[in-house]
Amino acid sequence: MYLEIITPDKRVFEGEVDSATFPGTDGYFQILNNHAALISTLGKGPISYKSKKFDERIEVNRGVVEVLNNRVIALVESLVDSEDED
Q1: pTM higher than the cut 0.70
Q2: Rounded CA separation 11/58 (Å)
């Protein structure tokens, strides 16, 4: 599936992944290939995404994610700087 993670300032990631895990406002959830269509709000926390070549994780501040036809788009307010964490 194709994942895009976008902030108002830049495109953080785009590419093919095997799975992605998101910090939903009601708890974490995972998206795999051929997932049903979905729109969800995101809370503050890590988005992790994996393929056979990499296993990445980034911390984000709130946003929304849309899943449709093996395309996942996460629009997030901002990334969490390691020194900003409370």
Answers
A1: yes
A2: 13
Alpha helices, H only, the chain: none
Taking Cα atoms as reference points, which of 46, 2, 13, 14 lies closest to residue 28?
A: 46
What the chain holds in terms of domains, given with CATH numbers, is 2-84 (2.60.15.10)
Q: Are strands 45-50 and 19-24 parallel, antiparallel or unpaired?
A: antiparallel
Q: Which residues of 65-81 are buried (b: 16+ CB within 10 A; e: fewer)?
A: bebeeeebbbbbeebbe
Measured CA to CA, the distance from residue 34 to residue 9 in angstroms comes to 30
Q: What is the mean pLDDT of residues 26-52?
A: 97
Q: pLDDT per residue over 13-32, tens digit each?
A: 999 999 999 999 999 999 99
| Cα distance between residue 2 and residue 74, in whole Å | 11
